[in-house]
Protein 1
Amino acid sequence: MRITHVESYRIFSPAANPPFSWRKGLLGGPPDAEVAVLRIGTDAGVEGVAMLPRPGAGVIVEDLVERLLRDQLVGQDPLQRELHWHRIWELDRIEELPLPVLGLVDIALWDLAGRLAGQPVWQVLGGYREKIGAYASTATFASVEEYLDIATQCLDLGYQAFKVHAWGDARKDAELAARLRAHVGDDLPLMYDGSAGFDLPDSIYLGRALADAGFLWYEEPMREFNVTAYGHLARAVDIPLLVAETSDGAHMNTADFIAAGAATFGVRVGTQMRGGITGCMRTAHLADAFRLRAEVHGPEITSRHLCMAVPNTTYFESLITSTTVTKKPEVDLDGFVHAPAEPGIALPAGLDYPPALRPYVEDAA
Ligand SMILES: [Mg+2]
């Protein structure tokens, strides 16, 4: 089997409605934008697709396909995912590809392999479980009272844990953590994501407050450039750290966070930041060797597959962006997400796809 065609698509993705915020300094919920879909086809008729749901990705992926990727892939064996993963990193040496692009070909080739096998990708990877608990992962809201109300709504919907993305103000966020713990009681797992908003002194201050409030993990308080700073933080606080979400270099970089003693809870695996499915599985197995967690990032369909194939992850991350919390189709009322059943990996429903992509949309059958 050989790859015969490689196409990119620019898909209109409407702005988040209602819009939502992240911490001070970050852009909020995405505006109207063009996202990207990559489609790889073969002389056997089987195809694979992958979405890059980032604003602006449409034009980036179109450029890469026209200038590089089609030439690299046409004529190659689509089942040699390791070879193609290696080739992308070789291209990255000069191109310095945007991080989310590094895994795009890999995801499409896993999708293709799943469709060829007639199996969902989590099962082709080596299935570990068929359901997993979901945690509610908030956007940034206006007040402590809003967070408390949203936490109550999420618990009523069955969510098994609650993670906040707060304001990026160490004092205010510490107060929110204490108020949340008092509100939900001692038993609910709570997590905090700093979205890289702090320097080391504020990270230490907030980490001590999160430990006092009995939080389960403390995620990405600083930009993940200086691994030494994370080592200092890990030695200064008792709260376990979850690190290496957005840093470049996939498992190779994650290894340095672990070696520095910074990954005291574990590390992150997300297909957009860790080089696709292959990069995530490498990272998860690396963490497993050190008896660490590899917590799956984000609510994308690829994350549902990873959650079923990565033994050392705990939860599925379900994003809550509105003050009125409604049930998500993928999370049941006991707070579980179930393993996808369709072959391959689906594209998300709800966007206006061209005819060539419609057979690959979730629930298209
Ligand atoms: Mg995060």
Note: Residues 3-117 form a domain with the Enolase-like; domain 1 fold (CATH 3.30.390.10).
Protein 2
Amino acid sequence: MWTDLSLPALARRPAEARAPSESPPPPFLRGPGAFILHYVRLRPLPFVALLTMVMGAAGCAVASQYVMKLLVDAMAGPREANSAAWTALAILIALIAIESVLWRLSGWLGCRTTVGIGVDMRLDLFNYLNGQPMRYFAENLAGSLGQRITSTAGNFGALTNTVVWRALPPFTDFIGALIVFSLVDWRMMAVLALFVVLVTGGLIVFGERGRHYHRTYAGHSNTVSGELTDVISNMWAVKAFSARGRERDRLARDFHVEAAAQRASWMYTEKARVIHDVSLWLVAGAMLSWSVHLWSIGRITPGDVVLVSALTFRILHGSRDMALSLVDMVQQFGYIEDTLRVIAQPQSVVDAPDAPDLQHRGGTVEFRNVSFTYNGGRDAVHEIDLHIPAGQKVGIVGPSGAGKSTLVTLLQRLYDVQSGEILIDGQPVRTVTLDGMRTADADVPQENTLFHRSVMENIRFGRPEASDEEVYAAARAAYCDGFVRALPQGYDTIVGERGTKLSGGQRQRIGIARAFLKDAPIIILDEATSALDTESEMEIQRALVRLMRDRTVIAVAHRLSTLTAFDRIVVMMNGRVVEDGTPDQLRRQGGLFNRMWRLQAEGLSLDEVDVEVEVENETVLRAGSGRSEVAAARRGR
Ligand SMILES: Nc1ncnc2c1ncn2[C@@H]1O[C@H](COP(=O)(O)OP(=O)(O)OP(=O)(O)O)[C@@H](O)[C@H]1O
Ligand SMILES: [Mg+2]
């Protein structure tokens, strides 16, 4: 029924050389400016209200300085005309009250708005992140990605804080003060305006130049978080290999690199402060001397001197706040930019435009001349042609590194193939939606990890709407009901991060129950029972064949004896299918499968079979020289 492909390969269809398509991120993720504007545009009213309140409050503050001048002047005049003083005082008190109310209202509104945006932002980033292909997650540390998403919301909050409460009030002060100053002496106004524009402009240029310091620091900070999470999640290895000191030193090196970047970023901002302080001292001194001089020659009143000195200090301090907050804004921008650079990378495995959902027709699987390489190196699978009819139970075997996991990973479209095509129920997986396509298969991967949730939630993850009874039935089919009930809280027991509170075999069985529960026509198991003893493994494989009668099963397995109940065995080596047939056929053929079978019967594992592919399309199997002696010795030769 199936051909043995170990001899000269079948005529191949010409490979459709197709580069994986890339989908760029949505426009709002393409840069920090677009990103921030996107969220501001989503809530225009609160932002307009916020700006109005803050400008109103700052306006009140400037106006009270002017009213203070009126009060001083009224008090310096004849005592009989004191009604002007009382009026000025009343206005002053009212302005102070209005200013306070506006500040507090802006605080309340700012809190509501930025916290709400923080939620949207994190969800949007997570939503985009989970569309990245598995290749991306192999290259980026989980802790670092988590940290980036969390800190972006914080950075946005800090940015809003900077703009609304640190840059805008001094800006309003500045405009108000120019108006008030022009009432006293327009030359003073011109000098002050010139100074503020020069200093603020200079500090902005200075800040912009320092942007790379802030970005570098943000990058290091995220890397360090990722490293730290990585070490914590590998704590077992750290202890088992007495590596606490080593890991501490390694972290210390990372921390020091991060600290150097942080110092550079921070000190750059401090330099800006120094430049500003010196300028402020010079200008404040000059302005005050000038106003006292004008008073001494009778050109301005004492009230004007009070006004000039109060406003000068206010504006000069304000100009520093404004310039430094602009520098900080550049810094926050740098952090957000860094996060977007990592998270908003183009996605390579995406839905085709207007892709339909997959139409389920029983679970037929077809590989047409499929080749795939991970990083442009050697093909991990090469020119695979396989047709698996609906309902067939197929075992995939072969030595380690043969490409078995890669093959089943491609079927789930966790990666896109570079050439050829994979079809489920006659529909190319690339042409249907990813979510729709993945309803077709239930998978138990080689490295099965669980969520830090209860056993019940972990199994029900396969089908969230499943009833408790259905969960128990799936658990029984996967031989895990017994041990789960014996756990301290039974099905409510929390399994620990990645399932660490369970044994490897228990974790695998829960993974299998989860896959059973998902009502998918195709079940894919990648060494899903490898951590079990041979007997349990056999039981599960048999249950699979018995219970999953109407489903297609593709199971990668190392222990060949567990696959005897399967309809068909596909043997892989060096990325190719080298044998294909029923277990009996393959054993009778006396090829690679039979050889592996005999070696395993003698107690050797598949990995001890040293196999090589030589000469074009011709497969030669030989036992490795050293190991063949071991094998021979075991055979008693
Ligand atoms: N994420 C990856 N990035 C780069 N190369 C990879 C990746 N995963 C697998 N490979 C390479 O692809 C080849 C096939 O690996 P694969 O995991 O498919 O083998 P396998 O047959 O499942 O082996 P095993 O029996 O050990 O699980 C190997 O050479 C491996 O090094
Ligand atoms: Mg594998």
Note: Confidence is low (pLDDT under 50) at residues 1-20, 610-637.
